[in-house]
Amino acid sequence: MNKISELDDSYWTYHNDDFEAAYAGFLEEHKKIGIYEVAGLKFFCPSGVYHPHEFSTTRFALRGLFKERSKFGNRLLELGAGSGAIGICLASTGMDVTLLDIDPVAVECAKNNAAVNNVSLNVLQSDLFAAVEGQKYDVIFFNIPLLDKGIEDPLDIIACDEGGELLTRFLAEAPTYLLPNGLVYVSVGNISNRAALLKAIANYDEHIIYAEFYGGSGGWRWLISLQPLDKGSFSTPAASIRP
Global pTM? Predict the structure, then answer.
Protein backbone atom coordinates (compact mmCIF):
# COMPACT_ATOMS: atom_id res chain seq x y z
CA MET A 1 0.00 0.00 0.00
CA ASN A 2 1.31 3.45 -0.82
CA LYS A 3 -1.29 5.68 0.82
CA ILE A 4 -1.82 6.43 4.50
CA SER A 5 -5.57 6.29 3.91
CA GLU A 6 -5.25 2.65 2.71
CA LEU A 7 -3.46 1.35 5.81
CA ASP A 8 -5.57 -0.99 7.94
CA ASP A 9 -5.81 -1.06 11.73
CA SER A 10 -2.79 -3.34 12.09
CA TYR A 11 -0.47 -0.49 11.10
CA TRP A 12 -1.85 1.66 13.90
CA THR A 13 -1.21 -0.84 16.69
CA TYR A 14 1.61 0.44 18.88
CA HIS A 15 2.93 -1.66 21.78
CA ASN A 16 5.72 -0.47 24.03
CA ASP A 17 5.55 -1.46 27.69
CA ASP A 18 8.50 0.84 28.39
CA PHE A 19 7.02 3.86 26.61
CA GLU A 20 6.61 6.08 29.69
CA ALA A 21 10.18 5.44 30.83
CA ALA A 22 11.52 5.91 27.31
CA TYR A 23 9.63 9.17 26.90
CA ALA A 24 10.89 10.46 30.26
CA GLY A 25 14.42 9.65 29.08
CA PHE A 26 13.74 11.50 25.82
CA LEU A 27 12.76 14.63 27.75
CA GLU A 28 15.82 14.40 30.01
CA GLU A 29 18.11 14.05 26.99
CA HIS A 30 16.67 17.22 25.51
CA LYS A 31 17.44 19.19 28.66
CA LYS A 32 21.13 18.73 27.84
CA ILE A 33 23.40 20.25 25.23
CA GLY A 34 23.98 17.94 22.26
CA ILE A 35 26.61 17.85 19.50
CA TYR A 36 25.91 15.71 16.43
CA GLU A 37 27.20 14.92 12.96
CA VAL A 38 24.55 14.53 10.26
CA ALA A 39 25.44 13.90 6.60
CA GLY A 40 28.97 15.09 7.28
CA LEU A 41 27.86 18.38 8.88
CA LYS A 42 28.14 19.47 12.53
CA PHE A 43 25.14 20.47 14.64
CA PHE A 44 25.12 22.01 18.11
CA CYS A 45 21.84 21.85 20.07
CA PRO A 46 21.04 23.69 23.28
CA SER A 47 18.53 22.50 25.84
CA GLY A 48 14.95 22.53 24.59
CA VAL A 49 15.76 22.20 20.88
CA TYR A 50 15.01 18.86 19.21
CA HIS A 51 18.25 16.89 18.85
CA PRO A 52 19.14 15.07 15.59
CA HIS A 53 20.24 11.95 17.48
CA GLU A 54 20.64 8.53 15.89
CA PHE A 55 16.97 7.50 16.20
CA SER A 56 15.49 10.97 15.65
CA THR A 57 12.78 11.79 13.16
CA THR A 58 15.33 14.27 11.77
CA ARG A 59 17.50 11.47 10.42
CA PHE A 60 14.47 9.44 9.37
CA ALA A 61 13.08 12.38 7.37
CA LEU A 62 16.44 13.12 5.77
CA ARG A 63 16.77 9.55 4.56
CA GLY A 64 13.42 9.89 2.83
CA LEU A 65 13.96 13.40 1.50
CA PHE A 66 17.34 12.55 0.02
CA LYS A 67 15.64 9.73 -1.90
CA GLU A 68 13.17 12.31 -3.29
CA ARG A 69 15.73 15.06 -3.96
CA SER A 70 15.72 14.60 -7.76
CA LYS A 71 11.95 15.33 -7.80
CA PHE A 72 12.22 18.65 -5.99
CA GLY A 73 12.10 22.11 -7.41
CA ASN A 74 14.76 24.38 -5.97
CA ARG A 75 12.81 26.54 -3.51
CA LEU A 76 12.15 24.82 -0.16
CA LEU A 77 10.42 25.97 3.03
CA GLU A 78 10.82 24.00 6.27
CA LEU A 79 8.61 24.64 9.28
CA GLY A 80 9.50 23.62 12.84
CA ALA A 81 13.15 23.58 11.79
CA GLY A 82 14.63 23.10 15.28
CA SER A 83 18.40 22.70 14.99
CA GLY A 84 18.13 23.31 11.23
CA ALA A 85 19.71 19.95 10.43
CA ILE A 86 17.27 18.97 7.68
CA GLY A 87 17.16 22.30 5.90
CA ILE A 88 20.89 22.89 6.22
CA CYS A 89 21.68 19.45 4.78
CA LEU A 90 19.34 20.13 1.84
CA ALA A 91 20.72 23.65 1.35
CA SER A 92 24.20 22.11 1.14
CA THR A 93 23.00 20.34 -2.05
CA GLY A 94 22.26 23.70 -3.67
CA MET A 95 18.62 24.25 -2.73
CA ASP A 96 17.24 27.71 -1.90
CA VAL A 97 16.03 27.08 1.67
CA THR A 98 14.05 29.07 4.22
CA LEU A 99 13.69 27.75 7.77
CA LEU A 100 10.92 28.72 10.19
CA ASP A 101 10.46 27.98 13.88
CA ILE A 102 8.25 29.52 16.55
CA ASP A 103 10.96 29.16 19.22
CA PRO A 104 13.56 31.99 19.22
CA VAL A 105 16.12 29.61 20.79
CA ALA A 106 15.69 27.21 17.86
CA VAL A 107 15.98 30.10 15.39
CA GLU A 108 19.34 31.15 16.84
CA CYS A 109 20.45 27.52 16.98
CA ALA A 110 19.66 27.01 13.27
CA LYS A 111 21.39 30.27 12.32
CA ASN A 112 24.51 29.27 14.24
CA ASN A 113 24.54 25.78 12.72
CA ALA A 114 24.25 27.22 9.22
CA ALA A 115 27.20 29.53 9.93
CA VAL A 116 29.31 26.70 11.43
CA ASN A 117 28.75 24.64 8.29
CA ASN A 118 29.20 27.60 5.91
CA VAL A 119 25.75 27.04 4.42
CA SER A 120 23.66 29.97 3.19
CA LEU A 121 19.90 30.04 3.89
CA ASN A 122 17.20 32.14 5.57
CA VAL A 123 16.05 31.47 9.15
CA LEU A 124 13.01 33.26 10.57
CA GLN A 125 10.94 33.12 13.75
CA SER A 126 7.36 32.33 12.79
CA ASP A 127 4.11 30.79 13.98
CA LEU A 128 3.57 28.45 11.04
CA PHE A 129 3.57 30.59 7.84
CA ALA A 130 3.18 34.04 9.42
CA ALA A 131 6.68 35.27 8.50
CA VAL A 132 6.48 34.29 4.81
CA GLU A 133 3.09 35.74 3.89
CA GLY A 134 2.79 36.02 0.10
CA GLN A 135 5.77 33.76 -0.64
CA LYS A 136 5.58 30.58 -2.77
CA TYR A 137 7.71 27.44 -2.68
CA ASP A 138 8.33 24.29 -4.71
CA VAL A 139 8.56 22.18 -1.57
CA ILE A 140 7.14 22.69 1.93
CA PHE A 141 8.27 20.30 4.66
CA PHE A 142 7.30 19.90 8.31
CA ASN A 143 8.89 17.29 10.55
CA ILE A 144 5.87 17.67 12.78
CA PRO A 145 5.70 16.44 16.41
CA LEU A 146 4.37 12.89 16.23
CA LEU A 147 2.94 12.04 19.63
CA ASP A 148 -0.80 12.44 20.23
CA LYS A 149 -0.43 13.76 23.79
CA GLY A 150 -1.21 16.95 25.67
CA ILE A 151 1.48 19.46 26.69
CA GLU A 152 2.29 18.85 30.36
CA ASP A 153 6.01 19.62 30.42
CA PRO A 154 7.38 22.65 28.47
CA LEU A 155 9.57 20.23 26.50
CA ASP A 156 6.51 18.30 25.30
CA ILE A 157 6.13 20.91 22.57
CA ILE A 158 8.96 19.30 20.57
CA ALA A 159 7.25 15.89 20.55
CA CYS A 160 3.49 16.31 21.05
CA ASP A 161 0.58 17.36 18.85
CA GLU A 162 -2.58 16.53 20.78
CA GLY A 163 -5.52 15.79 18.53
CA GLY A 164 -3.42 16.62 15.47
CA GLU A 165 -4.23 20.32 15.92
CA LEU A 166 -0.88 21.57 14.58
CA LEU A 167 -0.97 19.13 11.65
CA THR A 168 -4.50 20.27 10.80
CA ARG A 169 -3.52 23.96 10.80
CA PHE A 170 -0.42 23.29 8.75
CA LEU A 171 -2.13 21.29 6.01
CA ALA A 172 -5.03 23.73 5.81
CA GLU A 173 -2.66 26.66 5.18
CA ALA A 174 0.09 25.01 3.12
CA PRO A 175 -1.56 25.14 -0.36
CA THR A 176 -1.54 28.95 -0.29
CA TYR A 177 2.27 28.88 -0.20
CA LEU A 178 2.90 26.35 -2.96
CA LEU A 179 4.09 27.13 -6.46
CA PRO A 180 2.24 25.34 -9.30
CA ASN A 181 2.93 21.60 -9.06
CA GLY A 182 4.53 22.13 -5.66
CA LEU A 183 4.62 19.37 -3.05
CA VAL A 184 4.12 19.21 0.70
CA TYR A 185 6.05 16.63 2.71
CA VAL A 186 5.27 15.72 6.31
CA SER A 187 6.47 13.00 8.66
CA VAL A 188 3.83 11.12 10.65
CA GLY A 189 3.70 7.96 12.74
CA ASN A 190 1.37 5.47 14.33
CA ILE A 191 1.65 7.43 17.58
CA SER A 192 0.02 10.36 15.74
CA ASN A 193 -3.73 11.06 15.79
CA ARG A 194 -5.03 8.88 12.96
CA ALA A 195 -8.47 10.49 12.64
CA ALA A 196 -7.04 14.02 12.47
CA LEU A 197 -4.41 12.94 9.94
CA LEU A 198 -6.91 11.34 7.58
CA LYS A 199 -9.20 14.36 7.77
CA ALA A 200 -6.31 16.77 7.17
CA ILE A 201 -5.09 14.97 4.02
CA ALA A 202 -8.56 14.47 2.53
CA ASN A 203 -8.09 17.19 -0.09
CA TYR A 204 -4.60 16.10 -1.09
CA ASP A 205 -3.28 13.44 -3.42
CA GLU A 206 -1.17 11.56 -0.87
CA HIS A 207 1.58 8.98 -1.16
CA ILE A 208 3.89 7.26 1.29
CA ILE A 209 7.33 7.86 -0.17
CA TYR A 210 9.41 6.42 2.68
CA ALA A 211 8.66 4.30 5.77
CA GLU A 212 10.49 2.66 8.63
CA PHE A 213 9.20 -0.01 11.04
CA TYR A 214 10.60 -0.48 14.54
CA GLY A 215 9.78 -4.08 15.39
CA GLY A 216 10.34 -4.00 19.13
CA SER A 217 7.47 -1.57 19.70
CA GLY A 218 5.43 -1.97 16.52
CA GLY A 219 6.25 1.65 15.75
CA TRP A 220 5.86 3.00 12.23
CA ARG A 221 7.15 6.27 10.77
CA TRP A 222 5.97 7.46 7.37
CA LEU A 223 7.16 10.32 5.20
CA ILE A 224 4.31 11.32 2.93
CA SER A 225 4.11 13.57 -0.10
CA LEU A 226 0.99 15.64 -0.60
CA GLN A 227 -0.25 17.63 -3.57
CA PRO A 228 -3.47 19.67 -3.30
CA LEU A 229 -6.28 18.26 -5.40
CA ASP A 230 -8.05 21.61 -5.57
CA LYS A 231 -6.95 24.65 -3.58
CA GLY A 232 -10.50 25.94 -3.63
CA SER A 233 -11.84 22.82 -1.91
CA PHE A 234 -9.98 23.23 1.37
CA SER A 235 -12.91 24.90 3.09
CA THR A 236 -15.09 21.80 2.56
CA PRO A 237 -14.04 18.55 4.25
CA ALA A 238 -14.27 15.45 2.05
CA ALA A 239 -17.10 13.25 3.28
CA SER A 240 -15.66 10.13 1.68
CA ILE A 241 -12.69 9.89 4.05
CA ARG A 242 -13.48 7.93 7.20
CA PRO A 243 -10.98 7.89 10.09
Answer: 0.91
